[in-house]
Amino acid sequence: MTKRIIPIVFALFISFSSHAQDAKAKSLLDQVTSKVKSYSNIAIDFKYTLNNAKENINQDSKGNVTMKGNQYVLNFMGITKIFDGKKTYTIVPEDEEVTISSYNEKDDSAITPSKMLTFFNSGYRYNMNVLQDVRGRKIQYIKLVPTSTRDQRKEILLGIDVKTKHIYNLIEIGKNGTKTTLTVNSFKTNQPLSKNQFTFAQSKYPNYYINKLD
After folding, report:
1. Nearest C-alpha neighbor of 212 from the set 75, 87, 72
2. Are 177 and 54 in contact (CB under 8 A)?
3. What is the pTM for the complete model shown?
4. Cα dihedral 161, 186, 39, 171 in deg (nearest 10)
5. Residue 82: left (phi > 0), alpha (psi -120 to 50), or beta?
6. For 84-100, what is each residue's pLDDT tens digit?
7. Which tens digits make up the pLDDT trace of 7-18?
């Protein structure tokens, strides 16, 4: 379950359409992208909520991710994922296992930080939605609807801070009634990072099983 959720968290950061049905929505999304790309690095603390009233599921989790270029370190639900630009290292303390896999640049479905920061890919229709006041912050929502009938998501609401042009939250509603919400609690930029920030040190995990997929 935990390993399955981590790709979902990544997916929450990406894939917003360039098929513009709404000029204002496109303009705002473009501003978000431009702002994000202007930073040398980004560190985010987030809250992830999974809810399905029919199945009586209500789960809250917290995590954080630090990104620089196409490199990242993600900590979520006890698992750490490190991408050094070439290989991904998935560290699972509960299993005392590290899985190492290479990144395939030709794999369009691969979820990477560079795609997280791009936001606008094909596959969605979008338009402006409600404007809300959240503790003094003006949050403008953009509604995204998948164009593929095979997509299990009914719609996505992306909340953007009107002043900072930073993402405040993302609400994903599934066709089965499942609702997932990712809320950004802290958004820091241009932080001082260690030169080994995105380097996997195997010496830190002497008793771990190293699973090399390729």
Report:
1. 87
2. yes
3. 0.80
4. -50
5. beta
6. 989 999 999 999 999 99
7. 656 655 554 444
Instruction: Tell whether the model's pLDDT for residue 109 goes beyond 50.
Output: no
Is the distance from CB of 198 to CB of 82 less than 8 angstroms?
Answer: yes
Return the H-helix or E-strand segment holding 43. strand 42-52
Classified as helix, coil or strand, 26 is: helix
Amino acid occupying residue 160: I
Give pLDDT tens digits for 25-59: 889 988 988 888 899 999 999 999 999 878 888 89
φ and ψ at residue 100, rounded to 5 degrees: -115, 130
Q: Residue type for 4, please?
A: R
Which own/partner pairs from 194-198 qualify as long-range (CB within 8 Å, at least 24 positions apart)? Answer: 197/66, 197/68, 197/71, 197/73, 198/68, 198/71, 198/72, 198/73, 198/82, 198/83, 198/84, 198/85
Sheet with strand 179-189: strands edge to edge: 124-134, 137-146, 153-161, 167-174, 179-189, 42-52, 57-68, 71-76, 79-83, 87-92, 97-102, 209-212
Q: What are phi and psi of 5, to 5 degrees?
A: -70, -35
H/E stretch holding 23 reads helix 23-37
CB 57 within 8 A of CB 51: yes
pLDDT for residue 115:
56
Quote the CA–CA distance of 197 and 66 in Å, as a whole number: 9
Beta bridge partners of 100: 89, 212
44, two tokens? 């985010």
